[in-house]
Amino acid sequence: QQQVKQSPQSLIVQKGGISIINCAYENTAFDYFPWYQQFPGKGPALLIAIRPDVSEKKEGRFTISFNKSAKQFSLHIMDSQPGDSATYFCAASYNNNDMRFGAGTRLTVKP
Amino acid sequence: EAQVTQNPRYLITVTGKKLTVTCSQNMNHEYMSWYRQDPGLGLRQIYYSMNVEVTDKGDVPEGYKVSRKEKRNFPLILESPSPNQTSLYFCATHKDAWGEQYFGPGTRLTVT
């Protein structure tokens, strides 16, 4: 069964809006939580990552919020742009090995 | 330029015919991994390697083999491919336990 559950499967947002993607994990041994962005025909690329000793990490328009007690983390994309249209994957791992991915969220940002 | 290369990029084969997908990186990274990507399932790790001659099973290792005889190469071997191994395969590499994973461009495999 999937150790990392991601929602929603797809998301449509207007340009300038906020995109929010949620993930939940089961294994409390996980200590690394990255988000990957994938464009069609390309491999995933690291967007932003967080360790469980912080509750939030922000890089530009992208923010990860992390709730250790609830075993949940989320990606917020502020001021979403059409160029952000892609598939986003959350993941979790122990020591950056044995990586478990969510099923992915297809984001469409409408102009 | 830092690169992860995979060959071939596309492959159509028949059930039972052994095949190898190569992966090579020029970043001198210790860690390498193989993943398969299937619709609705995300990416699932097949095998990973923390160093030369050190490999370990990921989430879905059945039907696959790997070897790590030199740092830069990490081939994925399907001894007897079956149709359920039709998928998009990615090789990835990272420097250490805290490092970013870099993914290759993918190999689309179809087994008929």
In short:
The complex is a heterodimer of chains A (111) and B (112). Chain A has 111 residues and is an all-beta fold.
Question: What does it look like?
Answer:
- The complex is a heterodimer of chains A (111) and B (112).
- Chain A has 111 residues and is mostly beta strands.
- Chain A contains no helices and eleven strands.
- Chain A has strands at residues 4-7, 10-14, 19-25, 33-38, 45-50, 56-59, 62-67, 72-77, 86-94, 97-101, 105-110.
- In chain A, strand 9 (86-94) and strand 10 (97-101) form a beta hairpin.
- Chain A starts with a strand and ends with a strand.
- The model of chain A has no long low-confidence stretch (mean pLDDT 94).
- By secondary structure, chain B is mainly beta.
- Helices cover 0% and strands 51% of the residues of chain B.
- Chain B contains no helices and eleven strands.
- Chain B has strands at residues 4-7, 10-13, 19-25, 31-38, 42-51, 54-57, 65-66, 76-78, 87-94, 102-103, 107-111.
- Chain B starts with a strand and ends with a strand.
- The relative contact order of chain B is 0.33.
- The chains are: A mainly beta (111), B mainly beta (112).
- At the A-B interface, strand 5 and strand 10 of A face strand 4, strand 5 and strand 9 of B.
Oligomer: heterodimer
Number of strands of chain B: 11
Distance from first to last alpha carbon of chain B: 36 Å
> Helix coverage percent of residues of chain A?
under 10%
Q: What share of the residues of chain B does DSSP label as strand, in percent?
A: over 45%
- SSE sequence of chain B, one letter per element: EEEEEEEEEEE
Main pleated-sheet profile of chain B? 7 strands, mixed
- Kindly report how far apart the N and C termini of chain A lie: 37 Å
Task: Give the H and E element order of chain A.
Answer: EEEEEEEEEEE
**Radius of gyration of chain A, Cα only, in angstroms?**
13 Å
